[in-house]
Amino acid sequence: MRFGNWCLAIVVVGFFSCFSVAQSPTAKGMISYHPYEATATFAHMATDGSYGNGVGLNGFTGSLSADVMPFVRAAGEIGGYYGHGVSLTSFLAGPQVGFHINRFDPFVRGLFGISHTSVNSRGFGNSFTIAAGGGLNYSLTDQIAIRALQVEYFRPYGGGYHAADFLRVGFGVSYQFGTR
């Protein structure tokens, strides 16, 4: 089974398992009643060799999300990744599904948008981009959580690279705010 098929299978199983686990009770006081979340994440992107000898890109993402339904959020993300003369900037948005288990908040999401690649400070092209994966937040307080892990399959379509696969792994901090 190809890597892309494995990623799709993990996302589908994770999505449908949310509905069964979402019915489990949580500890009193551990559910967040804040409809908005801002997250800052450090990320490392491992490439498949499309940029040369498997270049690793390091960077940051900033994301905002808002509740749409009880377990569904609309998420938007801006990211910038750099390394070895290559820079990649992305603007993505899409659905995020998550639930609470005590202090843990696992989630899965699928983001879609556009990315721009530059090689040696020269624009290389814009691409339609998808990112699919998930992560785990650990709540420290009612409003602050540690994004312990975020793993995503990241793929630009078109532009300078017609077939570039990335694995994006990150960690960071999350701040939840607003009232319902």
What does this structure look like?
The chain contains one helix and eight strands; from the N terminus they run H-E-E-E-E-E-E-E-E. It is mostly beta strands. The protein has a single domain (3-177), classed as Beta Barrel (Porin). The longest helix has 19 residues, at 3-21. It is elongated and about 45 Å long. The termini are far apart.
What is this entry, summarized?
Helices cover 11% and strands 62% of the residues. It has 180 residues and is mainly β. Residues 20-30 have low confidence and may be disordered.
Task: Profile the largest sheet.
Answer: 8 strands, antiparallel, barrel
Strand order of the largest sheet: 1-2-3-4-5-6-7-8
- Reading off the top of the CATH hierarchy, the class is best stated as Mainly Beta
When the domains are counted, the total is: 1
How many β-strands, per DSSP? Answer: 8
The number of helices is 1
Provide keyphrases for this structure.
mainly beta; Porin; 180 residues; 11% helix; eight-stranded antiparallel beta barrel; elongated
Any chance you could write out the topology, listing elements then pairs?
Layout: H1 3-21, E1 36-47, E2 56-69, E3 72-83, E4 86-98, E5 104-119, E6 122-139, E7 144-157, E8 166-177
Antiparallel strand pairs: 1-2, 1-8, 2-3, 3-4, 4-5, 5-6, 6-7, 7-8
